[in-house]
Every structure is written in structure tokens, then in C-alpha cells.
Design brief:
Number of strands: 5
Shape: globular
Mean pLDDT: 91
Distance between the termini: 25 Å
Structural class: alpha/beta
CATH architecture: 3-Layer(aba) Sandwich
Order of helices and strands: EHEHEHEHEH
Low-confidence stretches: none
Number of helices: 5
Strand content: 15-25%
Number of domains: 1
CATH class: Alpha Beta
Amino acid sequence: MRERILVVDDEPNMLRLLKTILTDRTGYEVDTTNNPLEVSQLLKEKSYDLVISDLKMPLVDGIDLIDIIRKIDAQIPIVIITAYGTLETAEEAVEKGAYDFITKPFRKEAILITVKRALEWRRMQQELATLKAPSA
């Protein structure tokens, strides 16, 4: 089964760029939205393995979006991307539950490595949960 990624960014060009990077020779299935208010509905409709979100968006910013996502899926890794990266913002995102924090401009390889690591972490968490589950 292909791993599914949801990308949230208010900039249509960034959504196209990330979708191209993530689908080009990777096999990931990528859905995008430029409206952070749609995220909870999208997460309820489909199962995602990773969420990538911009930090600064109108209506709901990336930090608040972490809380929304955590209420639906407490285990899904979330990667925050921003052009306004500071150490304090990165710390706040990670404290809220983000898996990682990437600053723009970024290199294609940096995104792909972070995504690969986040998805591996997700698989390990799922395997651990399976091992801990009582057998029937």
C-alpha cells in the first residue's frame, strides 16, 4: 500500500512544488489543500501517514493545526515548513507535537529525507502498537 501524505499550505505554488517533489519517483500518494479548515474533514475521510503544513496561514496557523490534527490522530507525524523559522518557533512546534520543522527555502533532498524518516517513524510506532496489543 502506498503511503499517503496530506500537504497544507495557503500558497498554491508551494502545494504544486511539494506534490511534484513527493510524487516524483517516490510512490507516495499526495493530497493537498490550501485551506487549513478542511484538514479535520480530510483526516476523517482518509487515513494519512504524514501531514506537512506551512506555519503561517490565514484562519489557522500551523501551530494551531497541530492541536486539530492531534485530536483526530494522536500518532500521525506532522512536519512544519516555514519561511519564518526561528529557534523559538521550532521549539514551540515540537513541544506541540510536530515531528520536525523545516525552513524555506529548502532543498528537495531535505524534504525527501525528512519525509522518509517521518514515515519510518510512523511504521515503527504502528509495529510497536501491534506488538503491545493483546493477542486474541
